[in-house]
């Protein structure tokens, strides 16, 4: 390294190289060693782990980045976070955190000495130890990277509303092939250099994914540069395999990139330049498994896909490989890196920034430590006045929009709403009275509610919306994603991974709770009659309920007031994923606010005003969950009241779906006694459900009355038609519910046959009307539930 | 249009413009008109549909593309398909198909005259009519586009192994923001100009999505060009709003692009050039809602987001809007376009190619008409010889790989395997003995099994794999996608949409059945102990089983021989989505091939050789589905045989998960009598299941013995650990299954308490062993199920 000392007048690259060698040594040691961590004695088979698990290939490149980022942090006193796209390079993340001391601060038994190093090595990918990836257990990480594609979106999410933060994000060239990552490059069109921080993407081309080369590593360099320029970036290339040259090149390059960022921010923040800047990014091309075994058994490993995981596969049984492993590990000269006690030598420790400036100690990466509760207005102030149950109509999300308008205004840098261009479509436009949509593309005079800074982010990519919001939440802020119900399946996998992150985080006391990830699903299955079959899918609820109960909540508020109460609770929650399904069309508001609050607090309850059982001993229970099923159920109850006035009908509405589960399965679960009191143990229960009907069976199969439960829901019947035709197609309509009651309540006898026929005829009549007129019979669409007459529509709120 | 006649010596753009005006008229007519289709009388409110549903904004641009593509098809006698990314422009697709006669051929009641036009208009987005999108009902479509992002992947899938085909693909600028589409541009690195056809992407910038501008429409033109060049394309720009100029520009541009394609193919096919070509693509910039109302109520509509759906919202009630609508419709001069009978005039009809050259009549877009059955080898030839049940070990997917090798070889242009770089990881490498992975990036000497043409396609994007395969299947070929079980959730939404396509297609007699979409999920939840929690998720099965039963199948073959039998069946299937979950590690082969065939044909059956009930009257049923649960169940049965020899144990294995459902729910469903005969109605059933346990409850809740059913499965407990620790974490291990039996079989009395304790102790011992040694006790990992001893491991096949 001679000749590089004193680079740029501020730093010694020799010491930086020593840090790099130390982190490479620690990375390899975690993968291989059970004992003899400092190689004080010759390596023997019993020092080697019996199962070799982990990914070496990406680790030296990640270590290289980390070491060089340390340098610029120290030099410029930067507040920087590190997002590691190739999260399977877990050994690297752990090695760096141990080197800079964070690891031992959080896990004192893994001390920064020989004894701790032995534990560090043993625990990695070991039963009872730590995961092989950059998991929640890893200090400094908000991104596990097990499922690839989201690193850059997470990085931008972290940078929004964090003007003092720079997020360095290594994007692996495997990950770069994914769709979400390919779209994420455009995130720079949504970053405000004034109010937001900076993101420095480092595209790490090590050339291979698992067993194949990568696309971006095998296109001509000019194409790659065009691609990055096309994405709006200013790319810098760092390419090679000679450490000395590479250190100089990387240091020079990062200095230039950080100069660019400083200049961009300064110009923007001084008001001098409002054009969208070409943010820098780095293309780093290094061999896969750099500094590892070059050849094994005569076959090239370094620089090929064979270095992806374990370059030497059998050192425990093959003496030649054992010798090669020892030579490899000794090539880092551990005796120069660690002192007699196994403590990293002072010149290495000095490479690290101090305290919270260490990337693995960044408070942003343990966002709960920074979490400030939202300043929430009183949701009661936005209530729809309901003089009589259901007598007034309102669009639930429209009402919520008014509330969110004030949430936005009261939490300027702490709350964002993400959505794939559906905020207006989902009737939340009131928020635009107090904020704008972020837009750093060209602005035209005809544009509305677009600005360089705003709290609403809209891009036609559910992946970006979700990824940004995850990054925003995990760094200690709050938010909401609103999207069409059917298309939230696009982020099923991202939901799964975020839920898993929360599940694992909850077991780590040092990880402080972060704000809940809240989904507002509108434009739902029953109100996509106009867009047709592709837009009709309520199955996200099934996906959500597969995760551990303690991290998920599903709410189906039946009207505007219950939506307000539910939303307030969800915005206050932490370490959860909440799903709220709510309609956007005008619909009856069933409950005055005080009743709505009580009902939501209970999560499930009898609606006495719609029931005819006098509070005891019903003949049949009509249960419902979801706004449209509730409307049909109340209508069915009224039909029964009219035509079978002797029948004792109980209407039960479910807001909090988890209440249906046994308390052993979910903390919200009703006790069996409570469940039985509501649903009875022996009476027929006709359950009108928002989603796929079997979900209700799955939640209730252990309940006493389950054999009497008959669920109607979406059974995958749909097309472009009218709203009432949609419910008829799926036998969820009021007339069919009455028929279900007739079919299931014993002892009604022949006297109900005419009524049953009448209901069937009503269905035929409605269908015929619809097919003739192209719209629903006003009797069912503009129906007033109290009068039962279309000529007395409910009032608008 | 004067001065443009005779453009390029071959065609008249006047007539082309007339076609365009006709298709625009027909598009608007579908959205608005209930009657008076030819405007023979002044427009009156009753001529207007009561609900205005549909998307005008994108339609004129789509019509423009279709008209111009017709021109180049005729000029060059091209075999061309049209993929419409903005599938919500359904009016455009339907209008074009009606104009070229295909629509009336398929739907004779919608004849190509005034009467048919009236029906065409009425049926659109009307109850009992047709969907608003380019759905299966639409001739010429393989792509609905309800969920955006997959058009370009579908187009490439259609082009693979179709060297004579050119696929024109309009990509909307909204769709272009999605991740899957952003990644799809790189598909050109996987297209072979010799063996594959061509794709001509047309990026249609109309500037807006629903309520926002689009990213690609608002970046500087130079950035956009760089982006497309970076993606490896040669971009051509066509921009403007003057129809006359635009016609000339588009015609010239398409001529150049088609020349490029012809030259690229000729050079490659004559062996003159093997470099990856820069395929042409077109950037078409036109106003949203082009030729529609420019302003409504003083507000600009044309060229803004307000033109997205319905530009005039209330012509039925607002006289001014009615007049504006009439003026708009008359601006196309329908009297010049259609004759007295409403038949398009001859000069318009002449614009259309003939017969199967019409894009809406392309046989590729009704792929079932081209479907050739696979030439399948006899899977019995690949069977593992099993002298005694479970005595031999083999990796299931490794064995399948041998079979697939011959499938590949026997079906060179009719079968592809897609996967996100996991074909080797999933142990299917035998296929590389007969084919290669397609790779049009740079090739290095160290590369293996990469070639310019091949039947295996690997890219680290599940979206691309799925999209390519869908396009390939929908155009009449066969294939398989192999991927990690946890990450198949990435394409949940794409699966949903494909299943919906099949559900709708099955109701259309003219759509011929296409080959099944087959998923091979390996590296499954129980064998991702090394990668950790993020890689452990069996929930795709829950997603799949939400779709209509007639289009989905789920198979859990317990060993290599049953996998062969299942795979053979799945490769022969049509109009289905089949999911096969199979392990890749060495594991017992339980069944000789003849028994495997019988077992798979039945889908579920008693394994007498593992049972001790003598075929009648068991005390307990041990049921299992999935390879790892089967191993644990057989081991548990053997433990019970050893320690409780009097207990009558029946082992039931389930291969075909749909057999559990009632026959009313799924065509594979067992009758209640069959179910009861297998599972009994009154004995405890301990069910060891591959996935989330509640899925089994959901499938069986109506069965007589359901209350006695106790399911073990994955309950979201995982980390980086050992395989046996994974099953222990979820109480699915053999010891816990024995404890479950003890806890649930009545009358065993106190004599079993020591055995229960012994089982609990075994679990503790195994966990301690694992934590000490870092690997599983050979007693459970290398366990021979017959001897029960680790020193007699089963033989390798």
Automatic annotation (TrEMBL), chains A, B:
<dbReference type="Pfam" id="PF09363">
    <property type="entry name" value="XFP_C"/>
</dbReference>
<dbReference type="InterPro" id="IPR019789">
    <property type="entry name" value="Xul5P/Fru6P_PKetolase_ThDP_BS"/>
</dbReference>
<dbReference type="InterPro" id="IPR018969">
    <property type="entry name" value="Xul5P/Fru6P_PKetolase_C"/>
</dbReference>
<dbReference type="Pfam" id="PF03894">
    <property type="entry name" value="XFP"/>
</dbReference>
<protein>
    <recommendedName>
        <fullName>Probable phosphoketolase</fullName>
        <ecNumber>4.1.2.-</ecNumber>
    </recommendedName>
</protein>
<dbReference type="InterPro" id="IPR023962">
    <property type="entry name" value="Phosphoketolase"/>
</dbReference>
<dbReference type="InterPro" id="IPR019790">
    <property type="entry name" value="Xul5P/Fru6P_PKetolase_CS"/>
</dbReference>
<dbReference type="InterPro" id="IPR005593">
    <property type="entry name" value="Xul5P/Fru6P_PKetolase"/>
</dbReference>
<keyword id="KW-0786">Thiamine pyrophosphate</keyword>
<dbReference type="InterPro" id="IPR009014">
    <property type="entry name" value="Transketo_C/PFOR_II"/>
</dbReference>
<dbReference type="Pfam" id="PF09364">
    <property type="entry name" value="XFP_N"/>
</dbReference>
<feature type="domain" description="Xylulose 5-phosphate/Fructose 6-phosphate phosphoketolase N-terminal">
    <location>
        <begin position="13"/>
        <end position="369"/>
    </location>
</feature>
<keyword id="KW-0456">Lyase</keyword>
<comment type="similarity">
    <text>Belongs to the XFP family.</text>
</comment>
<dbReference type="InterPro" id="IPR018970">
    <property type="entry name" value="Xul5P/Fru6P_PKetolase_N"/>
</dbReference>
<dbReference type="InterPro" id="IPR029061">
    <property type="entry name" value="THDP-binding"/>
</dbReference>
<feature type="region of interest" description="Disordered">
    <location>
        <begin position="351"/>
        <end position="370"/>
    </location>
</feature>
<feature type="domain" description="Xylulose 5-phosphate/Fructose 6-phosphate phosphoketolase C-terminal">
    <location>
        <begin position="584"/>
        <end position="784"/>
    </location>
</feature>
